[in-house]
Every structure is written in structure tokens, then in C-alpha cells.
Specification:
Aspartate Aminotransferase, domain 2, Aspartate Aminotransferase, domain 1, four-stranded antiparallel sheet, globular, binds pyridoxal-5'-phosphate, 2 domains, alpha/beta, about 35% helix, single chain
Length: about 425
């Protein structure tokens, strides 16, 4: 694609964008001047689908009209409300229907997965994580290590970029796995690093881990609904993700969880059990022996948080209509356009940290502001850009392909250009 740094070009790209109409399915926040903000923060909180409200109201109506009967009656009975969500998310992450469930929130799911898939022994107790993993993942993994009576200082192997580099090299991850594999119980990496925007090579890492007898899980908070994923075929043991980032389910929205088919019927796996993970046919017999559902649903604890699920349903219907293939195609064009425009700025004050290769990143570029404090970010924010600042010096820009367009990207770079005075 031959890009041009002009407004006309951006507008032409928008006119031929096959997904252009989906922008109208979302509400954009307003800037203080009354105009729509340039929203480039879908990696933090996705925008509200206009249909979210009616889905939530439908649940309220069923509750009002049916009371407890709403669990099994009405168009979308509460007791089975999650099933369609799991099926739709399975398509997004490249899984089989049985392997995915919508439940809880992200960090909670990460803990529950580690209950099943982090089983340290005296000789194999270490966990690989990426050095600058999202803090919640660090806390969760460290606390699991301590819970099992080990010392994170010894048990946590953090992979970091080489000196002077920002991104972690796959070869370094694979080397660590092959050198220390016998001691490693679990590899748990963020599928896409929130800070740098680097997408890890999930398939290669999984295979290398399995070759050494390790279990391999991924936190896909920034990957789900953003990257091309084939969790089933890649053989990943488990994955967890939130849905309020690229999947637009609203603040604290219900999370997703993947467990590979090969684990679904295992009787030897430890897990924390709750009644909603119990065999559906006998759940209401209220027997005191736990019989897990032989699908990812077997990890559910509690009955459905239906009001929260309704907002996710609204967004997943849009995802289902668009499909990940078309979404990723647009996403790559859009992020590459952002990269192109930033690189054409005549300045040495900013530097793109995220990978250059389209398959090594998603809909995000992290921009380092050299020799500057937060002031540049403040200026662009005042001009109507909603993006994200990460200490010490990074602005994260995420053009979400479902609702952002080429004009958003162009307008953002214009504002950045003015703010830089170039
Ligand atoms: C967003 C994010 C979280 C947030 O966790 P919650 O449990 O949803 O609050 C955790 N880990 C990563 C990698 C994230 O990107």
C-alpha cells in the first residue's frame, strides 16, 4: 500500500474501507469544545456499542417481567446466557466452542487457571514471565508462587529485552526455555505486552515449552479481539483475557477464559470448584459431589453476572458480523498508516517503540517522547486526543479497527505535529 500524508488520502481510505459503517455503531466521547474526541484508547477501555443499552434493558425487562423464571424463560434465559458469549469469543481467539467460557474478571481467571496449571514440585517450580508484564499479572504470579511455599526471588524467571533494546527477542525466550526448561513448571506471558505493544510468538513459545515438559498459558488482555489467534491449533494450555479493552464490554466487563481441549476431561487436575462448574444435568439436584462440566465451563464458580454479560453480548454481535479476518486486515492498514505518518514527521523528539513487523504487533503503537516530560501528552490531550500516557516517557496510541478510521489517525498526527512544533 502506497500511503500519502494528506487529509484527502485519509478520507479516500475511509471511503473504501469495507468496515467503515461500524464506526456508527459506537458512541464517541465528546471533547470540551463539543466535538467528538479523537479516541485512540481502545486498548484501555473500548467504546460503548450503541446496542449495549438495549441488551442491558432487555435483561432488566426479563427480570422485571419474569422474576426467578427468567433463569429458564424469555428470549435469553439467565442460566444459559453465557453460552453464546463463549461460542462467539471462541471464534475470536481461534478455539473450539467447548474451550472458551465467559466468566469473572481477568486477574481472577488467571488465579483460577494457575490453581489448575501451576503445580510446582521441588525440582520443577519456576515460572517464566516477561519482565515488564502488567503489574496485576506480576502480583498474581508472585502470590501463587508464595502460596505454594516458594520464593519468587528464586522461582520467577523474568525475560527482558537485551541492553539498549525495548523488545524481547523470541530467540532469548526460546533459549531460556531450553536451558532452564527442566526447572520450569509454567510459562505465563502476556500475549501482547501492554507497554511496548509487542506481540509474542505464541505458537513457538508454546511448542518450546511443551518440548521441555512445561505448561504454557497466556494473558491475552491486549491480544483478544486484536491479534490473529489460533489457541487451539497452537496447543496453548490456557489463556485468559478481559473484554473491556478491544472487546468493548464496558468497565470491568466479564472476562474470557480458554482451556485446551486436552485438559477438559481430565480428572486429575486440581481446581477450585463452585456449583456453576457442576454438570448441568444434575446441578439442581444439589448433590454434594462435584462433577465438573467437561468444557471450559467446568471452571465456572458462580451463576451468571447477566447484566454485565449483556454489554459484552452487544459487542460480540458486532465482532461476529465483522469477523477477525476483515478486522485484522483493516487493523494492519490503519496501524501502518499511523506509523507512516509519524515517521514522516521531521523531528527527533519521538521514537516508535513497538515492533515494525505487522505480525509482531496489534492495533497499538507506543511512542517514546525523548527529552520530555508529560507536557507533550498534556498538549495533545487538551486538543481533543484521548490516548494513554505510561511513565516514564511513553504515549500509547491504539487505532481500534472496529470504530477508528484513517481520518482519526491523520487528525491525531496533525495535532502531534503542531504540538511538536514541526
Ligand atoms: C488490563 C490488564 C489487566 C487488568 O486486570 P483486571 O483483572 O481486568 O483488572 C491485567 N493484566 C493485563 C496484561 C492487562 O492488560
Amino acid at each position: 500500500m502506497e500511503y500519502k500524508p494528506t487529509r484527502e488520502f485519509a478520507e479516500e481510505m475511509d471511503q473504501v474501507d469495507p468496515l467503515r459503517q461500524y464506526r456508527n455503531d459506537f458512541y464517541f466521547p465528546k471533547h470540551s469544545n463539543g466535538k467528538e474526541a479523537i479516541y485512540l484508547c481502545g486498548n484501555s477501555l473500548g467504546l460503548q456499542p450503541k446496542s449495549a443499552k438495549s441488551h442491558i434493558l432487555a435483561v432488566l425487562d426479563d427480570w422485571r417481567d419474569l422474576g426467578v423464571k427468567g433463569h429458564f424463560e424469555g428470549d435469553n434465559p439467565f442460566a444459559t446466557y453465557h453460552e453464546d458469549l463463549g461460542a462467539k469469543m471462541a471464534k475470536i481467539v481461534g478455539a473450539q466452542k467447548d474451550e472458551v467460557v465467559a466468566m469473572n474478571s481477568l486477574t481472577v481467571n488467571l488465579h483460577f487457571m494457575m490453581v489448575s496449571f501451576y503445580n510446582p514440585t521441588d525440582t520443577r517450580f519456576k515460572v517464566i514471565i516477561e519482565k515488564n508484564a502488567f503489574p496485576s499479572d506480576q502480583y498474581a504470579v508472585k502470590s501463587q508462587i508464595e502460596f505454594h511455599g516458594f520464593d519468587p526471588e528464586e522461582a520467577l524467571l523474568e525475560i527482558e529485552p537485551r541492553d539498549g533494546e525495548d523488545l524481547i527477542r523470541t530467540e532469548d525466550i526460546l533459549d531460556l526455555i531450553s536451558n532452564k526448561g527442566q526447572e520450569i513448571a509454567l510459562i505465563m506471558i502476556g500475549g501482547l505486552n501492554y507497554y511496548t505493544g509487542q506481540a509474542f510468538e505464541i505458537e513457538k513459545i508454546t511448542k518450546a515449552g511443551h518440548d521441555m515438559g512445561c505448561l504454557v498459558g497466556f494473558d491475552l488482555a491486549h491480544g483478544a479481539g486484536n491479534l490473529e489467534l489460533n489457541l487451539h491449533d497452537w496447543g496453548v494450555d490456557f489463556a485468559v483475557w478481559c473484554t473491556y479493552k478491544y472487546m468493548n464490554s464496558g468497565p470491568g466487563g466479564i472476562a474470557g477464559c480458554f482451556v485446551h481441549e486436552r485438559h477438559l476431561k481430565r480428572k486429575d487436575l486440581k481446581r477450585f470448584a463452585g456449583w456453576w462448574g457442576h454438570d448441568k444435568a444434575t446441578r439442581f439436584l444439589m448433590d454434594d459431589t462435584f462433577v465438573p462440566i467437561p468444557s471450559a465451563e467446568g471452571w465456572q464458580m458462580s451463576n451468571e453476572t447477566v447484566l454485565s454479560m449483556a454489554a459484552l453480548k452487544a459487542s460480540l454481535e458486532i465482532f461476529d458480523e465483522v469477523g477477525m479476518k476483515a478486522l485484522i486486515k483493516k487493523s494492519r492498514l490503519l496501524t501502518a498508516y499511523l506509523e507512516y505518518l509519524i515517521e514522516s514527521l521531521d523531528t527527533n523528539r519521538i521514537q516508535i517503540v513497538s515492533p515494525k513487523n505487522a505480525t509482531s504487533r496489534g492495533a497499538q503503537l507506543s511512542i517514546r517522547v525523548l527529552k520530555s516530560d508529560k507536557s507533550l501528552f498534556k498538549i495533545i490531550s487538551e486538543k481533543g486526543v484521548i490516548a494513554d500516557w505510561r511513565e516514564p516517557d511513553v504515549i500509547r496510541i491504539a487505532p481500534a479497527p472496529l470504530y477508528n478510521n484513517f481520518s482519526d489517525v491523520f487528525n491525531f498526527v496533525q495535532i502531534l505535529k503542531e504540538a511538536l512544533g514541526v
